[in-house]
Amino acid sequence: MPNRTEGVKTLVEEVLATLPTPYSEDVIDEVLLAIEANPTWLTVYNVMRSDLGDTVVNQAVGSWTSKALGRTGDHQVPSRSKLAKSYSKLYPVVVLNQAAPVAEGLAGPLPLHAERPPLQVDEGGGVRDIGGHPRFPGTREWAAPSALSLLGPFLAA
Fold this sequence. Notes:
Elements: H1 6-16, H2 27-37, H3 39-52, H4 54-69, E1 71-78, E2 86-92, E3 119-121, E4 127-129, H5 147-156
Helix pairs in contact: 1-3, 1-4, 2-3, 2-4, 3-4
């Protein structure tokens, strides 16, 4: 079953191909302004709008623009275009907890202070204290107590 907004996707891809790069965070508004300025694109947009409705078409413009650029929407701002009241600013997707490639391989122990044991970064990006802890002699790894256990006396009151 074909997606009912495939026409919007095609229009967005065609418009994006004409916009200067790198794209700004206002690229959705720039796509709408370009559609508004081009009579052919505006006719196609208006036909889809009459078939699907304003809300569906405008949300699809934002969604397909976001997907085409691999970006994510952040917050709504007023549009300069007459085709929409507002749009989402688009920012690059940030992926957390990914091991960064290093030319020499995985990172080795990192000294924190001369009097403190070294830290080691493992493949998943976790930091491990490989020297033990004075309160727990003989341990190879140590983690700080959870914040919840520190707040226990205050929560009980």
